[in-house]
């Protein structure tokens, strides 16, 4: 599904956290939204999955206005892994992932064998199958993050929205999670803190700075010495990985 931000402004105070965002993201692209702390990454994503209504502008997904579409339809089309998904600790991991199937059911429907197979597959693909019977309250932050990603995958969405999806994950699970997301072939928008992960896995990078889009394009187009310096306050280089040639980021203390 193509995704369009058309002049979107939003925030919680008198001064918008994001201002006049204009982006067109192609179907099937993995877009990483990056920027310093407080640049508006999470605010922008919340307008997309309807946690925060824009003050101005509109968001169009697959030709439909996100804020003019029914909640249930959005729940079918958009899977979300947010930073503040902390409820439901009395659920087991399997029960939490089952919630991803409920937008596809009628009011009195029950999960079918196909639904249960989708749940099992999502747990397996995120490396969380062995956690299925455990309550969320007993899981580590990284384990819980994998279960919540599995829940989003179980929705079978056309758009996956991820707000800092590698939080709490060790390096092996960071790589596994982003490799999986990149392989899905669906539209992905992810706020990422680590520029190296954004460069390696995203096809498109959007840089936010003080609520404004200051660059958007491929990693090679966007992650330039000027952006490293002016936006992130570091010296940096984009270099090919010596093993597979994919772009990697090297950062250094800003030279004086």
Count of beta strands: 12
- Beta-strand percent range: 25-35%
Structural class: alpha/beta
What is the alpha-carbon Rg in Å?
A: 18 Å
Overall form: globular
Characterize the main sheet: 6 strands, mixed
- Which percent range fits the helix content? 25-40%
**Superfamily (CATH H level) name:** P-loop containing nucleotide triphosphate hydrolases
How many distinct folded domains?
A: 1
Please trace the helix and strand order, writing H or E for each element: EEEHEEHEHHHEHEHEEHHEE
- CATH topology label: Rossmann fold
Q: State the low-pLDDT regions, or none.
A: none
List the total number of helices. 9
Q: Which CATH class applies here?
A: Alpha Beta
Named CATH architecture: 3-Layer(aba) Sandwich
Walk across the major sheet and give the strand order. 6-7-8-3-9-10
Provide mean pLDDT, rounded. Answer: 93
How far is the N terminus from the C terminus? 45 Å
Explain what this protein looks like in three dimensions.
- InterPro entries: AAA+_ATPase, ABC_transporter-like_ATP-bd, ABC_transporter-like_CS, P-loop_NTPase.
- This is Iron complex transport system ATP-binding protein.
- Pfam families: ABC_tran.
- Residues 3-235 form the ABC transporter domain.
- The protein is α/β, with parallel strands linked by helices.
- It has a single domain, classed as Rossmann fold, CATH 3.40.50.300.
- It has helices spanning 41-48, 71-77, 93-98, 113-125, 141-154, 171-183, 195-201, 219-222, 225-232; strands at residues 3-10, 18-25, 30-34, 56-61, 64-65, 78-81, 159-163, 187-191, 204-209, 212-217, 234-240, 247-253.
- The chain has a 6-stranded mixed beta sheet with strand order 6-7-8-3-9-10, sandwiched between helices.
- Strand 1 and strand 2 form a beta hairpin.
- Helix 4 (113-125) packs across helix 5 (141-154).
- The mean pLDDT is 93.
């Amino acid at each position: 599904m193509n995704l369009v931000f058309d002049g979107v402004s939003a925030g919680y105070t008198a001064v918008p956290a994001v201002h006049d965002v204009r982006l067109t993201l192609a179907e099937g692209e993995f877009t990483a939204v990056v920027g310093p702390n407080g640049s508006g990454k999470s605010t922008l994503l919340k307008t997309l999955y309807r946690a925060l209504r824009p003050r101005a502008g509109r968001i169009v997904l697959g030709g439909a206005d996100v804020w003019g579409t029914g909640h249930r339809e959005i729940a079918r089309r958009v899977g979300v892994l947010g930073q503040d998904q902390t409820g439901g600790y009395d659920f087991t991991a399997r029960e939490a992932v089952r919630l991803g199937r409920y937008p596809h059911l009628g009011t009195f429907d029950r999960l079918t064998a196909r639904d249960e197979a989708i749940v099992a597959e999502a747990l397996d693909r995120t490396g969380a199958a062995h956690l299925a019977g455990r309550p969320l309250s007993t899981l580590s932050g990284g384990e819980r993050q994998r279960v919540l990603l599995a829940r989003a995958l179980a929705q079978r969405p056309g758009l996956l929205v991820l707000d800092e999806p590698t939080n709490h994950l060790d390096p092996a699970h960071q790589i596994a999670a982003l490799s999986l997301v990149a392989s899905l072939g669906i539209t992905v928008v992810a706020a990422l803190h680590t520029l190296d992960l954004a460069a390696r896995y995203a096809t498109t990078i959007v840089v936010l700075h003080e609520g404004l889009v200051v660059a958007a394009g491929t990693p090679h187009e966007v992650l330039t010495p000027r952006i490293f310096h002016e936006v992130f306050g570091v010296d940096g280089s984009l270099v090919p990985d010596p093993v597979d040639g994919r772009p990697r980021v090297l950062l250094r203390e800003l030279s004086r």
